[in-house]
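Issue: ligand-bound run for threonylcarbamoyladenylate - logging full I/O for the record.

Environment: standard queue, default settings, no custom constraints.

Inputs:
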Amino acid sequence: MSNIDTQLLQPDALGLDQAVQILQAGGLVAMPTETVYGLAGDARNDHAVARIFAAKGRPHFNPLIVHVQDLEQAQKYAHFDTNAMALALAFWPGALTLVLPLRLESGLAPLVTAGLDTVALRVPSHQVARDLLAHFDGPLAAPSANPSGRISPTRVQHVVQGLWGRIDAILEGGAALVGVESTIIGLSYPPLLLRPGGVSAAQIEHVLNASLATIHPQSAIVAPGQLASHYAPNAAVRLGVMQPLVGEIWVGFGPDCGGAALNLSPSADLAEAAANLFHLMREADLLAKGQASIAFAPIPSHGLGAAINDRLSRSAAPRPRC
Ligand code: TXA
Ligand code: MG
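Outputs:
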C-alpha cells in the first residue's frame, strides 16, 4: 500500500479545509502536535482507523490515543473521577494522555480501543492540532506518524520519509517543541505510569498528592504499545557510553562530550535533549551508514530524563526478526 497521492498542506484556512474534507471522507492526515507528529483519522470511523493500522504496519492489538479539543469533549467518551479531573485541569492542553473507563455510548470505533473497556484521551496544545480539531469538530485517533517500531517523527520531513505514498496528506507545523510522546497515566488504583513522557512523573504526583505505581517492564503488557523494541534506528545502539569505540557514532549529552559527532544538549538541558532526541537519532543513523553502531552518552533519569531513557532503552533493545 504505497501508491496514494500524498498532499503536503499548509496550516492555513485552505489547508485546514482540505485536511477536514479528507478526514470526513475517512482519509488519513498527519498532523503536528507539541510532542510528535500524529497520524490522524476519524476515531468514529472503523474504516479510517483500520487504515491507520495498515499505513503504520501496526499490530492490531495496539490501541490508539484519541485526541479531542477540550475536557468537555473528552467527557463524551470517558468517565472522569476526581484524579482524572485534577490531571486534566492541570495539564490539558498538553503532553498528558489519560487512560479512562470508556463510556458505553461513546460512538468510538471499537478498533480504536482494540476491544478494551478503557480509552486513551489527550488534548494537544499545538496550535495547528487545535485548529484542526476545532474545524473537524470530532475525535481524532492519532498514533505517532511513523512506521510501527521505527523512530518517532518530530519534523515534517520525518513523516515524509516514513509515510509518503501511504497516507492522504501531511499538515505542516514545524519542529515539535516537546519532542517525546505524551506521558500516559492509567487512572486505576493506584494511578499507574504506563509510559513516561513530556510531563514528568514528579509533576503528576504533585497534582495527585500521591505516588504513581509503575509497571514492571517484563510484566504483561498493560499499555500494549510498550513493546520492548521500539523507536529503532537501523544501526545497533549502545547506551551510557562515555568512551565510544573506534568508528562508532557518539551522541553526547552535556559539555563533557567534546569528541561527540552529535550532542543532544551541549548545556545538559533535558528539555532541549528531548526536543532533539528523535531528530538526532535519525541523523546518527544516517552517519552510521548501516555499518557503525550508535553510542549515546548517559542521560540523568530525573524529570524528562525518564522519558528520554525509556525511548533510548527501547531503541537499543533486541529487534524482533520480522
Ligand atoms: O504524544 C503522543 O502521545 C503521540 C501524539 C501523536 O499524540 N501519540 C502517540 O501514540 O504516541 P502511540 O499510538 O504511538 O502510542 C499510544 C500508546 C500506546 O502505547 C498504546 O498501547 C497506549 O497508548 N494506549 C492506547 N490506548 C490504551 C488503553 N486503552 N490502555 C492502555 N494503553 C493504551
Ligand atoms: Mg509511537
